[in-house]
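Format notes (please read before filing issues)

Several people have asked whether sequences and structure tokens are stored in separate files. They are not. Every record keeps both together, in the order shown below: the sequence lines, then the token lines. Line labels are part of the format and must not be stripped during preprocessing.
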Amino acid sequence: MNDKKFAFATDIHGNLDNVDRFLSEAAIRNTDYVIFGGDIAPKKVAVQSSDDKALVLNGSGSYNSIYNFSLLENDASKAYRNGYVLLPEDLSANELQHLYEVFGKLEKHIIQTGKYKKNICTWQLADFDLLETVFLRFFVEHIKSDEHSSKLYNVLLKKLLKSHISDLSPEKLWKSFINNQKLSFLYQNKVSIQSPQAARLFHLDEENYDQGELKEIITCAIFMKDLYNSLIESFSKSCKHYTKWIDVMENANLHTLEGQKKSIRDLIQRIAQFQNQTKANVITLLGNDDHKELRYEFLRAEKQGILKHAGNRVVQIDDVQVLGYSNVLPLPFSFDIWYKNEAEIARDLQKLKRQIRDEVRFTVFNIHMPPSGTSLAFGKIQSDEIEDWGSDAVRDSILETQPSHVFTGHLHESWMISGKIQDRIGESYVYNPGASEITPRLLYGDLNDPDNVELIT
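Then the structure lines:
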């Protein structure tokens, strides 16, 4: 009897280091069929700083939270290999970390309407200093490069000239805006604008400051209070460089497509190199955290003879046919483009099963959604209660067709709850080794001997 050695890994989520381990182990074992389960592309997002570090944002996704960056990796390329989409920023890691501590305190209404909802009393001098330095640079660039903001700035200049205030550069305009915020700080803390503390806030010598100079600064700041609202739209645009990350965290699916494409292209390159060294056949599948557009990357690779993509279709390699299916039942997160109800999943699987040929020796299912009624679909998704999140339609399809092997995933930690990675439905052997997103959970075996599988972690 000829060997039919297989290797299976699922829910890799772009972890290329685990892909390397998966393919390396498959090569050592002279594997015939290397099968990737769904959720193959990265879903996590990190910012790549100008000094090539990777940082992630801590916070709840609300402007009412204190946001801050924490260092993920000193080497951004390592974060990428571990399954992070990288968003490049032109600020250093230290600037990003300091900046977002401030932006946690800056409410969106400062930017959008120029009004405070939050108490500014808790601000520190360093917070104002950061706005006057790092923030200033981008505001000035925006004023000079954005046509609409330039027009607003020129209108404001004309108003200031009529008020006998001249030579207001973008730098001075921004400083006046910050001084206005400092006034709010003084008023809310009930600090006299003629006090040494006020002088220190405006960078004057608190022991020997000119009362007239302080009065002039404050007069200009009060005047600016009535004028800077006309530039709020411009401020809002200049702030997008910083508030972008909040949008990314709340709408990550809008920002990850290009990052997922890059990761998949690197994955395909690894598969091509693996095939140059072995005679193994590679089968891929997308899952509910993958953009649907990624199928075109795999189909191009299929035309080049690198792999077979079993995305909602049946593919055959010699005497093995693989039915692949990516859709899942609705969940309270991830891309709803992959969601279908039980009736829709049942109809899809019925159509796919018509492509199965009875004369082919081995029929294998590679279905991202595990079947219900097994030890492979447990999860704590909406509460602390353990529930069966498997699909009845998938189970019924397995019972009707009785494939020799069914490879599933999706429920990352089911094995932690049940202690099992293998089950039976009739004569079919069903597997869910758990996610290889963080640590590898790689399954190896032989189609001729479904009872004997080896899990490599």
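For reference, the curators noted about this record: The radius of gyration is 29 Å. The chain has 15 helices and 18 strands.
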